[in-house]
Each structure stands twice: as structure tokens, then as C-alpha cells.
Amino acid sequence: MPVNGGEALGVVRYGVERGLIIVEDPASRDGHEDWDPAAGFVSAGPDSIYLSVQPAVDGPIDLVVSDGRYHSPKTAYVYFDGLLRTAGPYVVVRDSDDVLRFSVRRPPGDSRVRVLVDEPGLAAAVHIIISSP
């Protein structure tokens, strides 16, 4: 999808009910039970990343998912930059209720995931970049 002179795989404005966006291997079983969002805005495991964002009660977020060729002008802070391991051919970006869901085709193995936000903690603009390591 062409957006601002680049390519975005998905763009949506959405009220995230619980304020949680998940980037993961669809087969991930990691529930991040020991994560305290008040102590850290991101929890990352080998095959899943949990991101604290603005909850729906405070308004919708602008979410962009791209492969790195599109750059969102709204996001300046690096929330996460690391590797995500997948067993299958997809990385999934979703909310915790699984109402919002993007599936991004990637080769099995490691993918680099960068997450940029407008404001740490109550992020209202989130750009998730999924690319080769």
C-alpha cells in the first residue's frame, strides 16, 4: 500500500481495548506472565514481543506495519530493536483480543523487528518494521 512515498504493508487507526499489541510467531506459547507494563513498556521473548500502547479509553492508535522501505513521520522513539524467531512462514501483529490482526509473510528463522513510537508508554502512533536480520 503506497503511503507517503513508501510502501506500508498495513495501516490502521484502531482503539486497542487493553493497550497491548503483540508481534509474534503464530505458534508462540510465551504469555509473558512475569511482565509488568508499569515497570517496562516492552517485553520480548525469542518468538514474541509485547508492546504497551495507548488503551482505547484514551483514544485510537495509528498503527503502521512495514518492511522497512516506508518511514512514518509520526514516530521518533525506538521502543524495540531486535530479533524475532519464527518456525513458520509468518509473523503476526495483533491486539491481545485478536480483533486486529496482520500476517506478514517472512521466511522461517530470524526476522529483525524495529518498533518506533511517538511517545513511550502511552504510544498513540506505532510503526512496526519487520525485515531481514
Description:
The chain is globular, with a radius of gyration of 13 Å. The model is unreliable at 1-5 (pLDDT under 50). The strands form three sheets. It has a five-stranded mixed sheet with strand order 3-7-12-11-8, with no helix packed on it. It has a five-stranded antiparallel sheet with strand order 5-6-4-9-10, with no helix packed on it. The chain has strands spanning 2-3, 6-7, 10-14, 20-24, 42-44, 48-52, 61-66, 77-86, 90-95, 101-105, 109-117, 125-131. The two termini are 23 Å apart. The chain has a domain at 1-28 and 49-112. It is 0% helix and 49% strand. It is an all-beta fold and 133 residues long. β5 (42-44) and β6 (48-52) form a beta hairpin.
> How much is the radius of gyration in Å?
13 Å
Helix content: under 10%
> How would you characterize the largest beta sheet?
5 strands, mixed
Which series of helices and strands comes N to C?
Answer: EEEEEEEEEEEE
Beta-strand portion reads over 45%
Low-confidence stretches: 1-5
Instruction: Order the strands across the largest sheet as they lie in space.
Output: 3-7-12-11-8
* Beginning-to-end CA distance, first to last residue: 23 Å
Q: What gross morphology would you assign?
A: globular
Total DSSP helices: 0
Class per helix and strand makeup? mainly beta
How many strands in all?
A: 12
Average pLDDT confidence is 90
